[in-house]
Amino acid sequence: MATRRHTKKVMVGGIPIGGDSPITIQSMTNTDTCDVSATVDQIKRIVKAGGELVRVAVPDDDAVQALGEITSKSPVPVVADIHYRHDLAIMAMEKGASKVRINPGNLGGTEKYLKVLDKAREYKIPLRIGVNAGSMEKEIKERYGEVNAEAMVDSALGYLRTAEEANFRDLVISLKASRVPETIEAYRIMSEKVPYPLHVGVTEAGSLYRGSIKSAVGIGTLLAKGIGDTMRVSLSSSPEKEVEAGKLILQALDVRVFGPDIISCPTCARSEIDVEKLSHQVEGLLEGSSRPLRVAVMGCVVNGPGEAGDSDLGVTGTRRFGIIFRDGKVVKKVEREQLLEALKEEIDSSPQ
Asked: What is the percent of the chain where pLDDT is above 90?
C-alpha cells in the first residue's frame, strides 16, 4: 500500500483530521433534526458502533435552533450540513457546530460565501468544501461539456482560491460522485494539487449490500493509494451500518484495527462442515470484542491449519469431529457439537 499522503491537520472539536492522525470514520443522522431526543439517541448509537464524527442536516431555522441542544448533548463533535442558506451556516457555528459542510456553489454567490468564511475564522471552525457531481455550477458544466473528474476538481479549486484569498485555510475537501471511477479520479487529481485533508466517499452508493461494495472499491482504492484523511460510507441504510462498513474497509487494508479479523474459506466439495453457519456463529461469539485476534473458519482439514496458518486461532472439522488450531498447529480435537464452545475457551485463554 502506498505511503499516506501528508496533509495539513485541522481540528474538529477535539478530533484531528489530516497530518499523521488516524483516518476518522464519519456518519450522518437520518432523524428529524428538530427531534432533539431522537437525534441525540442516534448519535449515541453511531458512536457506540465506532463513529468518531457525526454530521447533522440543518435545512431550516427550526433545525438550527435544535442544533444548539444537540451539540451540547452529543458525545462527539457535530458537523452541520448546510445547503442554500449561508445564514444557517453562520448560525450553526454560533450554536456549537464543530465543523460546517457547505457547497459554496449553492450559497447564493461569493459575497455570502465570504461571510461564512469570516464567521468560521472568527469561531476557529473548519469548513468542508463539498463538491458533488450532481450539483455542479452551470458555467463549469458548460466549460467541460459534461460533469467529470476534471470539472469537479476545477470547481473545488475555485472555492479554495477564494478561501485562501480571504486568509482562511482550515479546510477539508470532498469530491464525491455516484460513479466509482469518476470519484477515484477526482480525488487522485486533487491530491496532487492541494495540501488539504480529503474527506473520501462514494455518494449515493446505494443499499447496504451494493453500496458497501461500491464504497469498498472506491474508498479502498483511494486509501490504498495513500489518499484520504476521513471517510463516510454513504448507504441507504442505518448510520450504524455505515460505520460498521467503514471499520471493515479500514481493517481490511490494515490501516486501523478495531477488533477481531474473521476469515473463512469459500467452501467446496471437500467441506464437511457448514462453514457459512459456523462463520456467523463465530462472528456472534466475537461481536463487540476489541481484541485484535485473527480467527479462521475453514471447511476441511486440507484448508485448515495449513492455509490459515497465519491466524491466531481457527476451527475446522470432519463429519465426525472438530479441530481447534492455534498458529497453524492443532491444539484440540473435540466433538463437532462442542466446536464453538471449545473455540470460546481458547479465545478466553489467549493473551490479552
From this structure: 63
Dihedral pair phi/psi, residue 95, rounded to 5°: -90, 5
Question: What DSSP line would sit under 301-335, residue for residue?
Answer: TTTTTTTTTTSSEEEEE-SSEEEEEETTEEEEEEE
* Domains along the sequence of the chain with CATH: 10-252 (3.20.20.20), 261-348 (3.30.413.10)
Do 200 and 187 meet the contact criterion of CB atoms below 8 Å apart? yes
Q: What is the pLDDT of residue 314?
A: 86
Q: What is the pTM of this model?
A: 0.91
**Closest to 245 measured CA to CA, from 218, 276, 282, 285:** 218
Beta bridge partners of 54: 27, 78
Check the CA dihedral 36-128-99-87 and report its sign: negative
Band (305; pLDDT cuts 50, 70, 90): low
